Amino acid sequence: MKTKLWMVAAALLALVLSGFAMLSYAQDNTASAPQKVWSGHHAHRAYLMRELNLTDAQKAQIKEIFQANKQSGLPLFQQMAANRKAMLEATSNGNYDQAKIQALATQQAQLRAEMIVQKQAIQHQIYTQVLTADQRAKADELRAKQISRIESRLQKLSQPDASNVPQQ
User: How much is the pTM?
Assistant: First the structure.
C-alpha cells in the first residue's frame, strides 16, 4: 500500500513538474541559471513539437501564449519558492512541528493545484487555437499512449508482489 501511495505521489509530482516546465518555457533567454532548472523538460517539449510537426508560425504562436501567461505564473513560482524555504527552515536541525509542517504542506498543495490548473488552461489554449485537426489527432494519440503507460504501471502496482506470497 505504501508503494502505491509513493507511486501516486511521484505521478502527481511529475505532473506538477511538467507544469513548471510549461511555464518555464515562457522565460526568455536572459533568464538566470536558477530559472533554467527545468531544462530537461525542454527536450520533451521539443519531442512533442517534432511529433506534431509544428510550423514556425505555430511555434511562434505557442511562444506568444506562454509569454501572455508568464505574469500570471510568476506569483505562483514566488509563493512556491517561499513555501519551500519555510519548509526547509521549519525542519532544519531536526526540528519537527507537525502543525507547522501540515500548514505548509496544505499551502504547497494549494499552490500546486493552481499551477496544474494554469498548465491545463495553457495546454487547452494551444490545443484549440494553434493545432490543426491532424495535429490534434496526433496529440490525442500521444496522450492515449501516455494514459496506457500509466494504466499499465498502476496495474503492475496492484498485482501482489510474488516475493511476498507465502510458500506452502
Answer: 0.65
